[in-house]
Amino acid sequence: MPSEKTLKRIVIILGILIVGGFAVVVGTIIVRSLGGSPDQASEQSTAATDFAIPDGAKILGGSRNGETIIFHFETLNGIEMVVVVDVRTGAVIGELEIERR
Question: Do 75 and 84 touch, CB atoms closer than 8 A?
Fold first, then answer.
């Protein structure tokens, strides 16, 4: 049977592990509720300006599907464009140009 001193050490170590694990869980919940890690927040603020509809373009439609937004518009030159944008970062995922004849 282990000595009383050894049992006290085990109890102290397990207590520290429980408190540390609880702190990690609470910290993770707080960070996720605020929108991700601090690095992701800085990416969001800078990437949100990556996409802009050209001046004078006529918006024909749009749709949001989970993590993406799809814009359908026509430029002044008569070119139709479909652009897919990531909601979180604001970065353009893909573009499609449709020329009318």
Answer: no
3-state secondary structure of 38: helix
Task: List the beta strands (DSSP E) in the chain.
Answer: 58-65, 68-74, 79-86, 92-99
Question: What's this model's pTM, rounded to 2 decimal places?
Answer: 0.47
pLDDT digits (tens, 9 = 90+) for 37-68: 555 544 444 444 467 777 888 888 888 888 88
> Measured between alpha carbons, how far is residue 85 from residues 18, 20, 52, 62, 69 in Å?
42, 39, 10, 11, 5
**Greatest CA separation for the chain:** 90
Q: Contact 35/41 with Cβ under 8 angstroms?
A: yes
